[in-house]
Amino acid sequence: MQAPVDIIEGKQQDVLLICDHASNAVPDDIDLGIVPELLDLHIAVDIGAGAVTRSLAARMDSPAMLATVSRMVIDLHREPDHIGLIPHRSDGHLIPGNEKADRAERIARFHAPYHRALARRVRAQRPRLILSIHSFTPRLEHGGTDRPWEVGILYNRDARAARPAIDFLRQEGFVTGDNEPYSGRLLNATLNRHAEANGIPSIAIEIRNDLIRDVSGIGRWSQTLTALANSLRNSLAQNRPLTT
């Protein structure tokens, strides 16, 4: 059985990278009842996010935790009781194989071990900053409007990393969303649990996926996020204590 998380080790222990939607993998014993082409869309995987996370981990020599199962099987970035944990429909596409899925079994097999692994890593590493890497589609297929942001910074109550991150990216010339294209006050499950609950500054970084679909885009954004991480290290160090 495949491990629920792919762990990249790194020497710089002050930052931990997370990618909840890094994979479009579906286990052989799960039939989603969909055409294979859907697995290449944003409804199955955060396009480019896994590659950016790996590139960023290498540049920063920082540990990273990447999920190994598609969000169409179970969305690891949702609370266990969330209605969209095991999606029956996503951006207008039906996922009929999930209609009779054993919710408890999927949680026990994928969600619980993934979050246990994150919790163990946070306890052992005790990072000073957690960065969660995601991507978003420029426009939803069904009922969507154009999303003008190149990158969005998502956060809940703790804005210690968010405010300087937004300022940094805007100063660099990026069209940056403040809790856009959706709000971290509504959807922030992983960071609520593993960062904010432990008093660790954190942000979710949402990159528009048309910007990270190729090697050059992935390289540009991993370079940008390395500079952002270094800037946040400095700003957080100047604003101790780091607990809320």
Automatic annotation (TrEMBL):
> What protein name is recorded for this chain?
N-formylglutamate amidohydrolase
Q: Which Pfam families match?
A: FGase
Keywords attached to this entry: Hydrolase
One of the entry's Gene Ontology molecular-function terms is: hydrolase activity
